[in-house]
Amino acid sequence: MHFSIPETEVRSGENGSTYVAYNIHVNGVLHCRVRYSQLLGLHEQLKKEYGNNVVPAFPPKKLFTLTPAEVEQRREQLEKYMQAVRQDPMLGASETFNSFLRKAQQETQQIPTEEVHLDIYLSNRQKVKVNILTSDQTEDVLEAVASKLDLPDDLVGYFSLFLIREGKDGGCTFVRKMQEFELPFVSVTSLRNPEYRIVLRKSYWDSAYDNDVMDNRVGLNLLYAQTVSDIERGWILVNKEQHRQLKSLQEKGSKKEFIRLAQTLKYFGYIKFDPCITDFPEKGCHVIVSAGNNELNFHVKLPNDQIKEGSFKVTRMRCWRVTSSQVPVVNGTANSGTSGKSDIKLELAFEYLMSKDRLQWVTVTSPQAIMMSICLQSMVDELMVKKSGGSIKKMLKKRHNGSLRRSDSQQAVKSPPLLDSPDSNREPVVKLSSKLTSVTLRGISASNDISGNNIHGNDAFEGIGDDDL
Question: What is the pTM of this model?
């Protein structure tokens, strides 16, 4: 997740006094407003729990009122501090850090703790209404949904909650996976836009784990609904004969066989992102990126309007980073001129092993760059668990203390309707030839970078040998 503090505000406190508030944004959206003293309190608590050697340095106190220049300097320092804490595997996952952000989010949005109904959607657009507290964290809400659907405890960790934006045309844009530092009710309510909703989907990539889920009736129904939805969206490619076979299995009610046939189809289990821009194989190319099967798949539209396809394996990415820069906006469009307003431009860049001893940076400019980065990291996590001989169940295991179970009546997963006729107007795709990989290295300009060069090292890269190329 991308943390930033792009701005400060002077706000009124008690007794008419004023103070500087630092606006913490996550993925470019305001998460909370905090005072310096609150962040200092968090820092002291982290030092107490983990020691001075682990916790990054914190901006020092000042005796006198800060000048505007000093406020800006402190803003930059606090931003780097929050990013450093979040990126530390131990500090970023700590309950101290995450509970601080949850409390600050609730206080910023001024939403009191009370019982509410929250709508969670399944892939087939079925609505599941759960009773929760406004202060319930992501894990609490996930467990409430699982309880409502009668999904067993040992399968809860195979699923996650995702924030999506559904357009009027039915298109689905993945914004992010809901995180442990946020309150889902507060997050979706604060957006004040009915197009945003929370969706339940499987949270793993390796389709071999589908077998664990399909052994349970509810798990099977959830996977079946997601698979049908992904086919209808065009995320999974189906030809006419495959479509006929799938529809026949639907008519027979053969859900497991339906899923097993779908597993053999192209792009099964992938997440498809909105059209964006890449510098590969040429600068300024339009591209549709999909994530799945331990790779990023590119459908690139070249300047001559030819469509080509290629895949970048996560095991050949040495590292990657997400950078953000401010782009001035003039009359509603990005422009190089000066203006009081600006948009945030996000870029995902990864260093890829094109051939033996030749690494090259590939850049994708997309509002979903952070979601792409999260997908890459979760793929690496799965690969490393498998490589170490560990259990995916342990990685996905959720805590269950019994206190989060609600007394809601059970709700069944509705079976989706039969598949529509296949789309015969799909553009033909030409395989990306190896010649397209032999382009010159394009570095990434960070001159406008407001987040610092936060590199994600790839543990899965280290085990690659010449035989893998």
Answer: 0.84
